[in-house]
Write a structure and sequence with these properties.
- The chain is α+β, with helices and mostly antiparallel strands.
- The protein folds into 3 domains: about 80 residues, no CATH class; about 100 residues; about 160 residues, Alpha-Beta Plaits (2-Layer Sandwich).
- About 70% of the residues lie in helices and about 10% in strands.
- The protein has 13 helices and 7 strands.
- It has a 5-stranded mixed sheet with strand order 2-3-1-6-7, with helices on both faces. A two-stranded antiparallel sheet has the order 4-5.
- Strand 6, helix 12 and strand 7 form a beta-alpha-beta unit.
- Helix 2 crosses helix 3 and helix 10 packs antiparallel against helix 11.
- It starts with a helix and ends with a helix.
- The relative contact order is 0.08.
- The model has no long low-confidence stretch (mean pLDDT about 90).
- The protein binds ligand C2E.
């Protein structure tokens, strides 16, 4: 959550902003789910920000505002805030653990020093101890001081064990938060943010190793028509189906992501154009081979098809230009009648 929205929500404008959020959602025909509410808070709190612009674009284009859309927007524009909050919480727990370990260590130091002092005293008393009774007193004192130090050491050990477990739990939790922030909630593929990071890393690695790198973009054909006919819930299932086929083909080092509404992207490090074309063809055929059913009514939804385009990285090329060429190949697939795979190299040759 941005600082300004966070501040507004605790200030004199808090309730009027919240009411405006509800009114605006109702006017736009958007359900007041907690996630939509959060998105709208940010939108109205910062209408000119990137989230505000994207929501306005979706509304102006009359695109449906589905749960998948909300998930996408949240993954794209809200995770940083969530992550920051989780990291702040983790910081607090870590702080607490560290100070309690520090306390236990300083207590152990003090008791070790006191024990050393007791030993010194006993040593000098031993020199002057005249009879058995005096010796008995010194030994009893030493034994009680030793037991005390042992007990305190045990307490310190337990404290360190507990803190080690707590820090390990925290590390696992943060790892999960990091994974969530990089994952598209509907399809479980990487989200756009994660994909952009992977692409930058893969481009760099490909140049260092002088290996080929291919980027593919995949789009579901006539998805809007499908959504309008069968409803958004079924549309979401189609997204999950296509994602599951793409995901199965994307074993490491390949990377697959949901890049936009019904658009997916894949990175193929170290593969030849022929290998990439074969993999994309296999995905295209597998998706088209299945006739889907609408779960609520068992209606036959028919087959879903995808169009794809791919481009091989040129020297010193990465990010947006590579994506533009893959996109151009995808649109060539669409223009040629959909349900096909086109290589950017074929377009270059045709030109
Ligand atoms: P899901 O519903 O969570 O299903 C996950 C996986 O469970 C499926 O992966 C499939 O392996 C298995 N499964 C679920 N329901 C059935 C079933 O009725 N028969 C059989 N033989 N297996 C089933 P898969 O196939 O890769 O699908 C991934 C996702 O794609 C599904 O997640 C669902 O969201 C969507 N999907 C796939 N086929 C259909 C369909 O015919 N209709 C609808 N509405 N959605 C589908």
């Amino acid at each position: 959550m941005t600082a300004s929205v966070e501040t507004t929500l605790r200030g004199p404008e808090a309730y009027s902003l919240s009411r405006r959020v509800i009114d605006e959602m109702e006017a736009s025909g958007v359900w007041p789910t907690p996630l939509n509410f959060e998105l709208w808070l940010h939108y109205l709190g910062d209408p000119e920000g990137p989230l505000g612009r994207e929501i306005r674009r979706i509304l102006a284009a009359d695109e449906p505002f589905t749960e998948a859309t909300a998930d996408m927007l949240a993954a794209e524009y809200l995770p940083r805030g969530r992550l920051t909050e989780e990291i702040r919480d983790a910081g607090r727990v870590l702080d607490r653990e560290l100070s309690s370990v520090a306390d236990a260590i300083s207590k152990a130091h003090r008791s070790q020093a006191a024990y050393g002092h007791t030993l010194d005293k006993a040593a000098s008393s031993l020199d002057t101890a005249g009879d058995g009774e005096a010796l008995q007193t010194i030994v009893t004192g030493l034994s009680s001081a030793t037991r005390k130090v042992q007990r305190e050491n045990e307490t310190l050990e337990k404290k360190l064990d507990a803190s080690t477990r707590e820090v390990a739990r925290l590390r696992e939790h943060l790892e999960q938060v990091r994974r969530d922030a990089m994952t598209d909630a509907l399809t479980n593929l990487a989200n756009r943010k994660a994909f952009d990071e992977h692409l930058a890393a893969c481009c760099e690695a490909a140049e260092t190793k002088s290996e080929p790198l291919t980027l593919a973009v995949i789009d579901i054909d006539h998805f809007k028509r499908f959504n309008d006919t069968w409803g958004h819930q079924t549309g979401d299932q189609v997204l999950r189906y296509v994602a599951s086929v793409i995901g199965r083909s994307a074993r490491a080092p390949r990377v697959a992501a949901r890049y936009g509404g019904e658009e997916f992207a894949m990175i193929f490090p170290g593969e030849t154009p022929a290998q990439v074309a074969t993999a994309l063809e296999a995905i295209r055929k597998e998706i088209a081979s299945r006739s889907l059913r609408r779960r609520s009514t068992n209606d036959d939804l028919g087959a879903v098809t995808i169009s794809a385009g791919f481009a091989v990285q040129k020297p010193d090329e990465c990010g947006s230009t590579l994506l533009e060429r893959a996109d151009a190949a995808l649109y060539a697939s669409k223009r040629a009648g959909r349900n096909r795979v086109t290589s950017a190299a074929d377009l270059d040759q045709a030109a």
